[in-house]
């Protein structure tokens, strides 16, 4: 069981978390969503708090924590969107499978009546 949990965490981190964080930090600016055009963390914090960059040079760990907290909140939204998309796809697939089963049953019943 531990192997499965570690595998799921690795897949999530490799294929979802790290690419999303790369886009968040290095992608084009998207307003409040993120996309910091590859700015240095000190510049990001100065922009977020509307303060001088020198303040964040002295408080680099607090700056990094603030960036991480903002990213984590964005990542929760990304996860929810993906979850809802997968859920929609599963419901659609189940509906399709049920419809096909009903159709095949109806065709078989009709064929049996004809013979």
Largest beta-sheet characterization: none
Total of DSSP H or I helical runs spanning 4+ residues: 4
Helix content: over 70%
Give me the strand/helix succession: HHHH
* N-to-C span: 52 Å
Using the alpha-carbon principal axes, give the shape: elongated
Radius of gyration: 24 Å
Please indicate the count of domains: 1
Class by alpha and beta content: mainly alpha
Strand content: under 5%
Mean pLDDT: 90
What's the β-strand tally?
A: 0
Low-confidence stretches: none
Outline the fold blueprint.
Blueprint: H1 2-26, H2 41-49, H3 53-58, H4 60-114
Question: How would you sum up this structure, described in words?
Answer:
With 115 residues, the chain is mainly α. The chain has one domain. The protein contains four helices and no strands. The radius of gyration is 24 Å and the shape is elongated.
């Amino acid at each position: 069981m531990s192997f499965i949990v570690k595998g799921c965490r690795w897949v999530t981190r490799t294929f979802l978390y790290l690419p999303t964080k790369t886009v968040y930090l290095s992608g084009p600016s998207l307003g409040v969503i993120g996309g910091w055009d590859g700015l240095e963390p000190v510049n990001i914090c100065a922009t977020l708090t509307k303060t001088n960059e020198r303040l964040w040079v002295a408080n680099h760990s607090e700056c990094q924590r603030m960036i991480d907290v903002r990213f984590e909140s964005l990542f929760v939204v990304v996860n929810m969107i993906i979850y809802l998309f997968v859920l929609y796809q599963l419901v659609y697939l189940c509906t399709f499978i049920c419809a096909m089963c009903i159709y095949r049953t109806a065709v078989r019943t009709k064929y049996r009546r004809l013979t």
